[in-house]
Design brief:
- Helix 1 (about 1-20) packs across helix 3 (about 35-55), helix 3 (about 35-55) packs parallel to helix 6 (about 100-115) and helix 4 (about 60-80) runs antiparallel to helix 6 (about 100-115).
- By secondary structure, this protein is mostly helical.
- The protein has 13 helices and no strands.
Length: about 280
C-alpha cells in the first residue's frame, strides 16, 4: 500500500501544476515520461509556498510559511510526510540529491514577500535567485540525472531561464503586484510614472536573459530539451507581446497568450524538433 501513497502524493502535485498553470503543465507533458513526475513535484511545492505569501491574506502568513518550511525539512529528513505535496517533493529532493541550499534560498525569497514592498539592486538579485533561479536549478538536477559535470556546465543557463521567466511574470502581473499586494520588484522604477524608457531598460535586461538561456537549452539532454524549449517559447511569446504593449496598458491589465497561440507554438516547436533544429 505504500506505493499507492506515493502515487496519490505525486498525483496531488500533478493536479496542482495543471490547475495553477496550464502553460507549465502542457510543457511538462512534453518531457520524457521519466522526467514528468519529479518536475510536477517541484512545481507543486513551489506553488503552495507562493500561495501562502500571495493569497492567504486572512491568515497569519508568516506563521503558515514558517510551518511549511519546518515541515519541508522534516519531510526530507524523515523521507515521508502526510502532506502529499511535501511527500512527493521530498521524494524528488532525496532521489536526485538536490542541494538543500537551493531550498533555503527559495524560502528566503518567500519570506521577503511577507513584508518587503520594494527592492534595491542587491535585494532584487537575491529575490530573483531565490524565487526563480533556484527553481530552475532544482529542475536541472533532475534533467541531469545525478551527473554533476553536466549540471555544472548548464547551471548558469538554467539560472538565466529562471530569471527571464520571473521577470516576465513581474511585468505580466504588474497590476496585481503593485496595486493589490503593494510590491515593487524592479529597483529604481516609479510605477506611478512608468515610462517607455523604464520599460525598455527592463526589457533589455530580460532579453539578455533569454538569449543566454537559449544557449543552454540546446545543450540539454534529449529527454527534456523539447519540453523546456516549448516553455521557453511560451514565455518568449508573452515577452514579445508585453514589449508591444504601452506602459499604461500593462498597469491596467494582465497580458496573456491565447490558447490557439500556445497550440501554434507547440506545432512549430514540434516541426523544429523533428528536423533537429533545436
Amino acid at each position: 500500500m505504500m506505493q499507492l501513497f506515493h502515487e496519490v502524493s505525486r498525483e496531488c502535485s500533478k493536479i496542482t501544476t495543471h490547475r495553477y498553470s496550464t502553460s507549465f503543465g502542457s510543457a511538462i507533458k512534453l518531457l520524457h515520461q521519466d522526467m514528468r513526475a519529479p518536475i510536477y513535484n517541484i512545481y507543486g511545492f513551489v506553488r503552495f509556498a507562493d500561495e501562502i505569501v500571495d493569497t492567504f491574506h486572512e491568515y497569519d502568513k508568516a506563521e503558515l510559511l514558517a510551518e511549511f518550511k519546518h515541515e519541508t525539512y522534516k519531510a526530507i529528513e524523515r523521507k515521508i510526510s502526510l502532506n502529499p505535496i511535501l511527500h512527493s517533493f521530498q521524494q524528488t529532493i532525496n532521489k536526485y540529491n538536490v542541494d538543500h541550499a537551493l531550498i533555503e534560498a527559495f524560502f528566503r525569497s518567500m519570506e521577503f514577500d511577507l513584508d518587503q514592498t520594494s527592492y534595491n539592486t542587491a535585494a532584487y538579485r537575491e529575490y530573483i535567485y531565490g524565487s526563480a533561479e533556484v527553481v530552475g536549478l532544482m529542475c536541472l538536477y533532475i534533467f541531469c540525472e545525478n551527473d554533476p559535470v553536466k549540471y555544472a556546465e548548464l547551471k548558469p543557463f538554467a539560472q538565466s531561464l529562471g530569471a527571464a521567466f520571473q521577470k516576465v511574470n513581474f511585468l505580466r502581473d504588474l497590476k496585481a503586484d503593485y496595486q493589490q499586494l503593494n510590491r515593487t520588484y524592479f529597483p529604481q522604477v516609479d510605477f506611478n510614472n512608468f515610462t517607455d524608457e523604464m520599460k525598455r531598460q527592463i526589457e533589455e535586461e530580460i532579453g539578455v536573459d533569454f538569449e543566454h538561456a537559449y544557449e543552454g537549452i540546446v545543450q540539454l539532454p534529449l529527454k527534456v530539451r523539447f519540453g523546456v524549449y516549448v516553455a521557453y517559447k511560451y514565455y518568449l511569446s508573452l515577452f514579445k507581446k508585453i514589449k508591444k504593449t504601452h506602459p499604461t496598458s500593462i498597469m491596467e491589465q494582465r497580458i496573456r497568450i491565447p490558447n490557439y497561440s500556445k497550440a501554434f507554438i507547440v506545432v512549430r516547436a514540434g516541426v523544429k524538433n523533428q528536423l533537429k533544429l533545436i
